[in-house]
Amino acid sequence: MKSGTLFGAMLIGGILLSAGSSMGAEAKGASSIVLNGGSLGSVTFNHGRHQGMFPDCQPCHAFFPKESQVVDKMKGAGKLQRKDVMNMCKKCHKELADKGRKTGPTNCKECHKK
């Protein structure tokens, strides 16, 4: 009987641990996000890589609420103009490059894919 109780406790503990770890992953958002890039094609934003490089989420999330399809919603509400996101990304990438740090792309075809 004791081994059955131990097995049950281990099973429940495993379920709770896996649920907790997946909840933590969900709180971080998607690992990559595909953005509508207009006529040049979609842009895949590597959210997970940015999280690994920058522990403080506020530089982006002070401006972009943490919700699905937020860029399209903000554009639809007139809170975001056509190239605002691109300009924000390019500015950050150029600032990192100027500091000699590894950075992301700064030209059109490196981000936009048809």
Automatic annotation (TrEMBL):
Query: What keywords are annotated for this sequence in UniProt?
Result: Electron transport, Heme, Iron, Metal-binding, Signal, Transport
Q: Name one GO molecular function term.
A: electron transfer activity
Transmembrane regions listed in the UniProt entry: none
Which CDD domains does this one have? Cytochrom_C3 (cd08168)
Which Gene3D superfamilies does the record associate with it? Cytochrome C3 (3.90.10.10)
What does the entry list as the binding residues for heme c?
Answer: H47, H50, C57, C60, H61, C89, C92, H93, C108, C111, H112
What's the domain of life for this entry? Bacteria
- Could you give the cofactor binding note from the entry? Binds 4 heme c groups covalently per monomer.
Q: Which residues form the signal peptide?
A: 1-24
Outline the extent of the Cytochrome c7-like domain.
Answer: 43-113
Q: Which cofactor does it need?
A: heme c
Instruction: Write down the InterPro entries for this protein, in alphabetical order.
Output: Cyt_c7-like, Cyt_c_III, Multihaem_cyt_sf
Q: What is this protein called?
A: Cytochrome c family protein
**Organism annotation:** Thiovibrio frasassiensis
